[in-house]
Design a protein that fits this description.
With about 500 residues, the chain is α/β, with parallel strands linked by helices. The protein contains 15 helices and 23 strands. Strand 6 and strand 7 form a beta hairpin.
Length: about 500
């Protein structure tokens, strides 16, 4: 899958604004120069139901229009986050006329009948109110931006999930839970039986692969079944909402997930969102959604990225903690996965945008987008990420095996004696036999020929940059810079691209 913007493949080098930053246009004015200094090509910004429809049926899109105007002024694209019925599980962005009428707009309830600040996904009125506002937003975008395409994607809601129980116990939910599992889900399970992800397949198998019956009859009595049930109805709500939006203006749409921490049970975390263990349920119930996306605040970046891409889905990261090492993760994501988006959260919070490592990484990645999108589908782009515990890796491109190490493994820097090393990373693009573009930070690469009885040698290593898709060579990296023909190196805290030509002898 590729994201096309103006019929050209596009990678989102983004940043997500803090939740309240887009609620007041003057607040954002000093932010735009920061974003430009960090080389963003896309801003991910919220749109708030409570502010665009403060009175039922009357819409005010001034904040949206200001976002679009300022993005155009700064030559950036926009991804809009629809903060509608749910944001981080809660319904805090619903308008006052929705919040205060719990009879018309029912809430989720815990097992004791206590109402939560969460709209029930089992209510037709909740869906229709959300649809009305979302469709109005999409119609407005089509009217005001349908030709310029400043807005390129929409996030439908934000981090959906059930709390503090694994499911809601409101009357409509209780009735639905006792009914038979919908035939549409059985059709999906049967048609995809051989390719189901292990989580759902295991639970279905343990129940004997039943093709009729109630939720507990098919999947057993457990918190896992409660979560599957809620995932289905959350996803059905989102599918109907997405269809209403796309009918008004057909932009790509995705749904994001708050990742569950190890050892937590459904209800301890926001359960039933588009998490890896219920992705099959979401795909069955919400086929109109284009991408299921993780928000990264958990430490094991590789683990979660692998889970979201194990069924050949693209990796789309709308939100990741803005912290040390995020630059290395960006190189790794775009190099190792079919990654379409990378976006640190609260990107505007920095006081020194010109010094931010993510900005330096984006300056490099922006130049490489044409190469990544051209050579990535053929498997000719590879990424890597390194720290003290995982200081070396290998990969094969063409007739060469690349041995990649953290820069500190050379032992040349006094910093290498410390207990921890900074996270570093990069990516390599193989454009022709024996020809590579190496980019990143904090890396050392040696090359091994895979031809029998041959050794690998460097014909040339040139530092340089791309301008208007043309390679402009700079320094010839020989002598001390390539350790007399031994390796390619980009030191820690340096960011660059080197054009490498190999030969075998």
């Amino acid at each position: 899958m590729q994201l096309l913007v103006s019929d050209q493949p596009f990678l989102i080098l983004g940043g997500e604004l803090g939740n309240s930053s887009a609620s007041h246009t003057p607040y954002l004015q000093p932010v735009w120069p920061k974003l430009k200094q960090m080389h963003l090509n896309t801003v991910i910004a919220p749109v708030y139901w409570e502010l665009i429809e403060a009175e039922e049926g009357k819409f005010n899109f001034n904040l949206v229009d200001d976002l679009i105007r300022d993005a155009r002024k700064n030559q950036m694209k926009l991804v809009l986050l629809w903060f509608g019925a749910w944001k981080n599980s809660m319904s805090c962005y619903a308008p006052a006329w929705v919040k205060t009428d719990t009879k018309r707009f029912p809430r989720a309830e815990d097992r004791k009948g206590k109402k939560q600040e969460i709209l029930s996904p089992f209510s037709k009125a909740n869906l229709e109110a959300d649809q009305q506002a979302f469709a109005a937003l999409m119609r407005h975008l089509k009217q005001t931006d349908g030709h310029e395409h400043t807005v390129i994607m929409i996030q439908v809601e934000n981090e959906i999930g059930m709390l503090p129980e694994a499911k809601t116990y409101d009357a409509a939910a209780n009735t639905a839970f006792k009914q038979d599992v919908p035939a549409k889900l059985f059709t999906y399970l049967q048609e995809n039986k051989n390719s189901l992800l292990p989580d759902i397949k295991r639970i279905w198998k343990e129940g004997g692969y039943k093709t009729h019956g109630s939720w507990e009859e098919v999947f057993g009595k457990s918190l896992a079944t409660d979560e599957i049930f809620m995932a289905w109805y959350y996803a059905r709500f989102i599918d109907e909402l997405t269809l209403a939006g796309k009918k008004a203006y057909n932009l790509p749409m995705y749904v994001n997930a708050a990742l569950n921490a190890p050892g937590k049970k459904p209800g301890d975390y926001p359960s039933a969102g588009p998490l890896p263990h219920v992705m099959d349920i979401w795909k069955a119930a919400a086929p109109s959604v284009d991408i299921l996306a993780p928000d990264f605040y958990n430490p094991d970046f590789r683990h979660w990225s692998d889970l979201y891409t194990r069924a050949s889905d693209p990796l789309f990261i709308p939100e990741i903690r803005f912290e040390a090492g995020v630059d290395a993760k960006a190189f790794f994501a775009f190099g190792n996965y079919n990654c379409l988006s990378f976006s640190p959260f609260s990107i505007e919070s920095t006081d020194q945008p010109e010094k931010e490592p993510i900005g330096k990484a984006y300056a490099i990645l922006h130049q490489l987008i044409p190469l990544i999108t051209q050579y990535g589908p053929a498997g000719q782009v590879k990424g890597f990420m390194l720290d003290k515990d995982s200081a070396s890796t290998t990969l094969v491109l063409g007739n060469y095996k690349l041995h990649i190490s953290h820069d500190y493994k050379l032992g040349w820097s006094p910093e290498s004696k410390k207990d921890s090393w900074p996270l570093t990373g990069g990516l390599v693009v193989a454009t022709e036999p024996g020809e590579f573009y190496v980019s990143g930070t904090g890396l050392v690469i040696t090359f091994e020929s895979l031809e029998q009885d041959k050794r690998a040698g460097f014909l040339s290593i040139d530092e340089g940059k791309f301008e208007n898709r043309q390679w402009l060579p700079g320094r010839r990296m020989n002598g001390d810079q390539d350790h007399q023909g031994r390796h390619v190196r980009i030191p820690v805290n340096d960011y660059g691209i080197q054009h490498v030509k190999m030969y075998s002898y």
